[in-house]
Amino acid sequence: MLLVLVPSYLSRRSKDLVLVQDALLAGDFEAIRTIGHKLRGHAGTYGFDQLSIIGMDIESAAKLEDAVAVQRLMQLLKDYLEHVEIAPPSSERLSS
Amino acid sequence: MTLEHQILVIDDDIEIRSYMQIALKPFYRLKAVGDVAQALAELSDTTTKYDLVLSDIQLPGLSGLQLSEEMRVRGMTIPVIVMTAHGSVQAAVTAMKEGVFDYILKPINLDELKMSISRALHVQSLESENTILRQEVKRSWNVANIIGKSAAIRSVFDLLQRIAPTQANVLITGETGTGKEIFARALHNLSPRAAQPFVPINCSAIPAELLESELFGHTKGSFTGAHQDRKGLFEEAQGGTVFLDEIGDMEVSLQAKLLRVLQERKIKPVGGSKQRDIDVRVIAATHKDLKGAIREGRFREDLFYRLCVIPMELPALRQRKEDIPLLADYFFKKHVATHGLKVKGITPKAMEKLVEHSWEGNVRELENFIVRAAILCSEDWISDVNLPFIALTGNTDSSTSPNQFLDSHFSQNLTLRELEKRYINMILRKTGMRKEQTAQILGVDRKTLYRKEREFGLTAEADAQAVEETKHSLV
Question: Shortest CA distance to B263 belongs to which of B230, B309, B299, B229?
């Protein structure tokens, strides 16, 4: 049942990329931190553990106001979204 | 799994809200909001009853922990589970110490979440049940030492608790043995007059010529034998409550005097000329049909309405059969302790028989029966087997004729006085302690019967003693 949520969930992550890019241009590291924090929380909940780690790293880089690290993580996120494959769930928790 | 429980989810992350909506939908009814303000609005809305709150800790504005605190302040007892990222575990642990039911780490593991929710709802259900049972016990089973949980007695309890704090006069009606004086005492004890005296007067037990003096007092020399001034019971009860039992037996001439006292709140002692102010609440009781007595001219209508500001009708025991096991158990424990008996209890089958019995003498008859059953029981338990042999009332002793009684007592060479005492006692038990019927059978009036009862000490305790004596004489 939860699989129905996945396509729209992943498409909204592409929007996250745009939001992080805009925030980086504006120097708004607090907005970036919030996006990273939320990504960390909800990606793991949806079963995208690797995406959750990327979110955690974005949150950490934003706290340090490390624009280079944020840029690198954005690229990682983009690659992930382009290559992620959805496997059938092994339990009620989704897995990527 | 039913969808009987409603959960409120609070998370500012729409992804988490969407996830919860889908993941928990098969198990619970669910509403999801984004902040504490919306959550409090939802929780305050009485049209929806929430069973559980599932909240993120970090929220815009007030946090999930502040929501929990605000709920506590508002007296909301709904369990709260908080969701937190790894870094906020310490905050979650602190929150649990302050009353949050559980915490769930993000990323959320659905199995863990469902288990936590299930546990919280189970605990909440037990606590609610416990609260309801405690209230039920407090409200219904024992109000001012009156035992009962039936609908019939609960409605009387409700009335009792509503009217006790007022000053209104109360007329208690009900069959003999239903506990009219006990309810009158409860009305007094639950009233602001509780610290002042409760003075019961049995209008039927006091000769008419003495009743006026008993009620209102007398002055020295007002009649033969009045050697000194004496306060009446109304004055004795000053500030408290006067309980006029068997008001239906009061003579009409005295009814007029009582009416005046109730109207003017003043008494004039017999032989006196000065009136004295009194401040008493009057509770009256009767087993008689006062409206019938009014029609027949034996009771003043104006006094009736003065006394019957609030009528309280007590149900007969046969109208509250579900209370019989409670009452039987209560009386059993009370008298086993009083008499130091070894008998352990009443078997379920014996209890069934007690419930089936009609108890025309009501609670008083039941208590007397239990005393006798406990004292005469030679087994560990009062059972349906030994019940008939110890039963001295109702169906089981209806075959005992006066002749059989006399035959069985002649051989004991009893005095006439002892024989009289035992015979009156036997008839009282045969009639289930119904005074009017007993007096009829004995061929005396009720006043004589009351006098004999007092003279022979034929109260419940004395009755038990008499049974014990009988038991010894049978050994």
Answer: B309
Interface residues from chain B to A (CB-CB < 8 Å): 13, 15-16, 18-19, 22-23, 26, 58, 85, 106-111
The residue in chain A having the minimum alpha-carbon distance to the alpha carbon of residue B17 is A42
Model pLDDT for residues B435-461, shown as the tens digit of each residue: 888 888 888 888 888 888 888 777 654
Taking residues B327-339, what's their average pLDDT?
88
Q: Looking at chain B, which residue has its C-alpha nearest residue A50? A: B107
Most confident of B171-175, B219-223, B268-272: B171-175
Torsion of Cα atoms, B354 then B366 then B338 then B388, to 10°: -50
- Provide the pLDDT for residue B401: 58
A92 touches B at CB < 8 Å: yes
Q: Is the previous residue joined to B107 through a cis bond, with omega within 30 degrees of 0?
A: yes
Position B377 scores a pLDDT of 84
| Closest approach of B23 to chain A, Cα-based (Å) | 7
Contact B314, B180 (CB under 8 A): yes
Give yes or no for A41 touching B (CB within 8 A): yes
- A 10 A CB-CB count for B279 gives 13
> To which H or E segment does residue B282 belong?
strand B281-286
Residue B342 contacts by C-beta under 8 Å, 6 or more apart in sequence?
Answer: B380
Residues A60 and A32: beta-carbon distance below 8 Å:
no
Tell me whether A74 touches chain B (CB under 8 Å). Answer: no
DSSP conformation class of B319: G
Q: Is the pLDDT of residue B364 over 50?
A: yes
- Report d(CA B455, CA A88) in Å as an integer: 93
- Nearest by CB to B15, from A2, A9, A49: name it: A9
List the one residue out of B388, B339, B394 whose CA is nearest residue B366. B394
